[in-house]
Design a protein that fits this description.
The chain has 298 residues and is mainly beta. The chain has two domains: 44 residues, no CATH class; 188 residues, Pectate Lyase C-like (3 Solenoid), CATH 2.160.20. The chain is built from one helix and 24 strands. The strands form three sheets. The chain has a 20-stranded mixed β-sheet that branches. Strands 1-2 form a two-stranded antiparallel sheet. The longest helix has 34 residues. The protein starts with a helix and ends with a strand. 30% of the residues are buried.
Length: 298
């Protein structure tokens, strides 16, 4: 055996040893990941974003509109209309955040993260979606038939986005905004700390609608032929529109109260009331600490 052959064998053995060490490290890493969470990846001791779960939900009667009902405490909701006959739900648990509480019992231990679970049910075309862990954030991205009714709500740390959906849309947020693009039907949208923005391609005839916020902008684009009576108000902002609004005097709202000490109270609502295209059902657009915009679509 020559010196060159000996060196080649030594090099081969070193390569094999290095490969075995790599496989062992990978096995340990996979075991740690499985112990941490079934949907959470651990790479070199660092917890990365949990994997997304995809669930396809069949409808009892695909010929009828679906009802998508999503209720969250922590997280965001997106619903997009498509030409599908079922409902696709993509659930993305947010990165688990450590508790702010001190835990002396955990001294010297590594915290193993947890991901939010979720639940989905369907009955008579009503698809109910929610989190199994209210205090852990999760994002739902949903594809639904374009003709669907929606009932969406979230409380903290999330936005609600709806696109290309036509139906009865009931949307509520508390600490986040609401955005609706290319939607049709009848809308009730309300948030406390966020903006409400909507671009509507069609409105259901003779149906009232409401777009309201407390600490955010209300910006709504309506089809140019929309017939409605607008009731608009901003307590600490302004109201704008490029519709020809036929203004009318706001009827006073009188509240009669007489307390035990004989006091009598009257309140008057100072909303701007006006008709567009001859008038129709009432649309309320109101905010407290921002502006209201009512735009005429193309």
């Amino acid at each position: 055996m020559t010196i060159a052959d000996l060196r080649l064998r030594i090099a081969d053995r070193r390569l094999i040893a290095a490969l075995l060490i790599g496989v062992g490290s990978l096995s340990i890493g996979c075991t740690a990941g499985a112990l941490a969470s079934s949907s959470t990846r651990v790479v070199q001791g660092v917890v990365s974003q949990p994997d997304a779960d995809r669930e396809t939900v069949p409808l009892s009667d695909p010929s009828r509109p679906a009802m998508i009902d999503v209720s969250l405490v922590q997280g965001s909701i997106t619903v997009r209309g498509t030409n599908r006959k079922d409902v696709l739900v993509v659930a993305r648990p947010d990165t688990d955040r450590p508790s702010r509480r001190d835990n002396p019992d955990a001294s010297g231990l590594r915290r193993i993260p947890q991901a939010a679970g979720f639940r989905i049910s369907e009955a008579d075309n009503r698809v109910r979606i929610g989190s199994e862990s209210p205090n852990r954030a999760i994002t739902f991205e949903i594809e639904a038939p374009a003709r669907s009714n929606l009932k969406l709500s979230t409380v903290n740390g999330g936005e609600i986005l709806v696109e290309n959906i036509e139906g009865d849309l009931e949307i509520g947020n508390t600490n986040g905004g609401i955005t609706m693009n290319n939607v049709g039907g009848a809308v009730t949208a309300n948030t406390t700390n966020g903006s409400v923005r909507a671009t509507m391609t069609r409105v259901t005839a003779e149906r009232t609608m409401a777009f309201t916020s407390h600490n955010g902008t209300v910006d709504v684009t309506l089809p140019p032929t929309t017939r409605a009576n607008l009731r608009m108000r901003s307590d600490n902002g302004d109201v704008y529109s490029d519709f020809e609004v036929q203004l009318a005097a706001a009827a006073p709202v009188v509240q009669e109260t007489r307390s035990g000490n004989g006091r009598y109270r009257i309140s008057r609502n100072r909303s701007i009331v006006g008709a567009i295209n001859g008038g129709g059902p009432e649309f309320e657009l109101r905010t407290f600490n921002s502006n209201v915009y009512v735009r005429r679509g193309k």
